[in-house]
Amino acid sequence: MKAIRRFTVRPVLPEPLRPLSDLARNLRWSWHAETRDLFQSVDPERWAASGGDPVRLLGGLRPERLAELAEDRRFLRRLAAAADDLNDYVTGARWYQTQTAELPAAVAYFSPEFGVTAALPQYSGGLGILAGDHLKAASDLGVPLVGVGLLYRHGYFRQSLSRDGWQQEHYPVLDPNELPVALLKEPDGTPAQVSLALPGGKQLHARIWLAQVGRVPLLMLDSDVEENALGERGVTDRLYGGGSEHRLLQEMLLGIGGVRAVRTYCRLTGHPEPEVFHTNEGHAGFLGLERIAELCAQGLDFDSALEAVRAGTVFTTHTPVPAGIDRFDRELVAHHFGPDAELPGIDVGRVLQLGMETYPGGEPNLFNMAVMGLRLAQRANGVSLLHGRVSREMFSGLWPGFDAEEVPITSVTNGVHAPTWVAPEVFRLGARQIGAQRTEDAMTVGGSERWDAVADIADQDIWELRRNLREQLVTEVRERLRASWRQRGAGTAELGWIDGVLDPDVLTIGFARRVPSYKRLTLMLRDRDRLMDLLLHPERPIQIVVAGKAHPADDGGKRLVQELVRFADDPRVRHRIVFLPDYGMGMAQKLYPGCDIWLNNPLRPLEACGTSGMKAALNGCLNLSVLDGWWDEWFQPDFGWSIPTADGIGTDPDRRDDIEADALYDLLEQRVTPRFYERGQGGLPDRWIEMVRQTLTLLGPKVLAGRMVREYVERLYAPAAHAHRTMAPEAARELAEWKSRLRSAWHGVTVDHVETTAATATAELGTTLGLRVHVGLGGLAPEDVEVQAVSGRVDGEDRITDAATVPLKAAGGPDPEGRWVYEGPLSLDRTGPYGYTVRVLPAHRLLASGAELGLVALPAEDVVEEAGVLMR
């Protein structure tokens, strides 16, 4: 019989054990080994059965066991120490509290998904794991962050395989009462709620669940409440599920409801109000509209409120492909805003303006969430150097007249949270070398360029560690493979072969990620005979562990999974290559440390960052990857290999895959496997061990989430907080009025005449030229603009590369025709083909960059011909 209702019966902890509840409710246990060890000692079998989830562990304990523990003095001493340690962690001064710069009182960080722990399955892939690592690193550093997301009742799907290898999806129901979260409550004990107005007079209500991530509160909105009609209850049902309207409602709840949830949390707890709002991808972009509405309610007009909101907003884009961005039909968006719906005080036309693709090549009828995110944020970034370049190209239409390299999108390369992803054995090896506290500080706060202490670890210790981790992975793979085959319908008698799957002494390659086509899951299958030869080589075999989920609506991705699974099912190679279904955090934490090589072969440059290789590197795994994302930035032959790419314009996709697969096989055959298997005089693979050492020494400090969050604080949060404080209502009105005046007058700004005065007739290195420029300002004043000389090397089409800019000074005017004269020096500081031009940009003390408005005035063609190009 099926229950008509379910609820959770919690045990009452005896008074001496009450701190266990606090420890279980703070997700710091997910990256703090001592706390996990304490919970494991409560009941090792039940701890394993609970999947390492303290809430489930405590929920299933027998009263007799609780009574025993309440009398166990040794356990109570450990419990008291763990509770004291957590208290010190959440209340003591950390890196942020020691900084002398003026930093934000608080930062609100919005993301559609958060991968904090497998016990809170609210993530689908890299974006969520990155967001979880961001919260954890912020907690370790003491950054006063407030996370904001949604609580999905089904999370992301669980994956299994049919008998013929086709992906199956399952959506288990999550009961928040069984998760490490608690309802945010009003002083009278009722659950705190936020509401959104829907068309037709309906309402969307949501409760606020609180997950405590170390020092960082994570607020998660849940629409599955009795006050909602059935349709509204389902808004937070699935991550990335449903059609357009469903997604739009999720994103309105995340952005608009999320700001309201932050205000509610600050009111109830006294937490400082955020000065900076950071949106992780465009899904939460509507948060800017809610903040504009707040300011309009306080008396600001829309344009002034927009300037005030932009000043304190940071937008991070994670996708290098337009298909990865949420876009909605403009009519659908218009239907959900205005007098009969949400934000009735804001003109629907102004809402639409923020997201419309009003630039060459854009779709004028689509509302683009990333475009809105960029228009509502004064600061934006990609997530690796290469991705920053790709993003500047991709969104350059928003800044017409500027070369892509001047588009105001910077980059902060992602990092990973070492305490979450580093195997305990690796941590212990470091602690043996430099002590536990220094090892923990190195992995959380970071800051050093190199981990030189790794040089003192003996080769034998490194090699034994690597073999131990490989052996653990082999055990894990066999267990998961056996479970997968049972789900596929195999009987126990058919599965004897699994005991021989993988070998702890064979070179092990890992490949695990989502399965969109650009990540090329099946590139390794391009020449199956060559792959078989590699897998079955008599002296230098390889073995491969593969995992990944295709999106439920992506049949192409599912076909790739099935193709890989069918190859791995072949009795000739199934002991050497495996596909593990249901890739998630729990599997990943075993997979990264146990592999010797982490393989990544996306179509360059479509990988924004690709953090899985960073997690592997922190465990001494070497990377074998296309030069994309973070690997393009930090690759060195000392600690890995780069797969050559055939990404020239016009290369046929099939031909490209053939070329790059051949390059991959060549690397494995000629360079990777020989290095792993060759032995030095001591019987160890000396050159391989040296690469592991270099990976830890040089890459380790770079790939940390602590380094990433410190960069966000110093380069984006601190300037945004300063701009937010500067942009008081009067300043916001001033800037809005100035921008309006500037836009209406800009058509009259011209560069009319450019002349040079040279000290000598020849242009030699070290020469300084005098520039004299006549500029029409069209009714603007000299203080409204900056006139610049732009110079540098030129290519064959006279485009300036590696440009340097020098501001010119007003030297007189206006003349009878209203023109102003600007002058300044131009130093010829490099040899070769060299050129210059002159331009006029808007200038105001409250602008973050001269490109902010996308306005620029350049010399007309006849002026260019007259001025000429220097040194051709």
TrEMBL record:
Pfam families the UniProt entry points to: DUF3417, Phosphorylase
CDD domains, alphabetized: GT35_Glycogen_Phosphorylase-like (cd04299)
Catalyzed reactions per annotation: [(1->4)-alpha-D-glucosyl](n) + phosphate = [(1->4)-alpha-D-glucosyl](n-1) + alpha-D-glucose 1-phosphate
EC number: 2.4.1.1
Domain called DUF3417: residue spans: 13-120
InterPro entries referenced in this protein's UniProt entry, alphabetically: Agluc_phsphrylas, Glyco_trans_35, Glycogen/Maltodextrin_Phosph, Glycogen_phosphorylase_DUF3417, Pyridoxal_P_attach_site
Residue ranges crossing the lipid bilayer per the database entry: none
Cofactors: pyridoxal 5'-phosphate
Keywords: Allosteric enzyme, Carbohydrate metabolism, Glycosyltransferase, Pyridoxal phosphate, Transferase
Enzyme class: transferase
Family according to the record: Belongs to the glycogen phosphorylase family.
Function: Phosphorylase is an important allosteric enzyme in carbohydrate metabolism. Enzymes from different sources differ in their regulatory mechanisms and in their natural substrates. However, all known phosphorylases share catalytic and structural properties.
Protein name from the UniProt record: glycogen phosphorylase
